[in-house]
Amino acid sequence: LGCRCGVRRAVQCSAVLCCWCGVRRAGSQSVRRAVPPCVCRRPWPTRAQAASSALGFPMTAWVILPVSLAAFCIAGIWIVYAMAVMNHHVCPVENWLYNDTCSGETSKRGYPKSCCTIQDIPLVSKCGSYPPESCLFSLIGNVGAFMVILICGLRYGQILEKCRPTWINSGALIAGCINAIGLVMVGNFQVDHVKSLHYIGAGVAFPAGMVFVCLQCILTYKVAVSLLDHWTGHIRVILTILALISLVLSILPCSTLP
């Protein structure tokens, strides 16, 4: 048996923190006594637990989703880059010599370019501009956006189970969905063909993603109840700062390119 909050939710609603059931001996029988406003009963499943059970997974199994998102996107971008190099659409990252013009391409198909111009710098968007790598680039954007929406929805429900609805949690959900929309635009509108929409998508996706992770840092401290939770918040803050620095450093050089 466990405890469950009554109608008045004075404090955080959980079986451990909200209420307590005492057990006292009365002769040979054990009598369970609930401290108001709590009642002794079997713990009811939370909304997130009920949803995960209906899908056939325990709630802890969904931790695979954000890990899979990172692994899928990182591996996919490197595959797109390799395809673009082999198809002579960009130059390899180890190339540091760029010419003003190239008279003709003498490299064999399947080998990196021997003559590179500034237009051949292997930016992520540039690597996904031409087929066949553009097809994979679009797939990464679409699947990644779908996984982002799933992660945002699950995280929103998880926070709701730990505290009352707040504008921070709602704002994080909205920012995550905006980030997903931007990823779809980046993946499906290639920079060499529809530059304006591609840049609009990137300008929406990356700032919205930063807002999402910043709000998640705040929510982590807001619902923290143990030392481990606070350390998780510290780690998220460090990773958020590193992500912000990386975003700024990646934007500055690109702003000087044609």
Compute the gyration radius: what is it? Answer: 26 Å
Helical segment count = 7
Sheet-strand content, in percent, reads 5-15%
pLDDT average, as an integer? 77
Helix/strand/pairing category: mainly alpha
The helix content, as a percent range, equals 40-55%
| Uncertain stretches of 5 or more adjacent residues | 1-45, 50-56
What this model shows, in words?
The protein has about 260 residues and is mainly α. The chain has a two-stranded antiparallel sheet with strand order 1-4. The protein has 7 helices and 4 strands; from the N terminus they run E-E-E-E-H-H-H-H-H-H-H. It is about 55% helix and about 5% strand. Helix 4 (about 135-160) packs antiparallel against helix 5 (about 165-190) and helix 6 (about 195-220) packs antiparallel against helix 7 (about 225-255). The longest helix has 28 residues, at about 135-160.
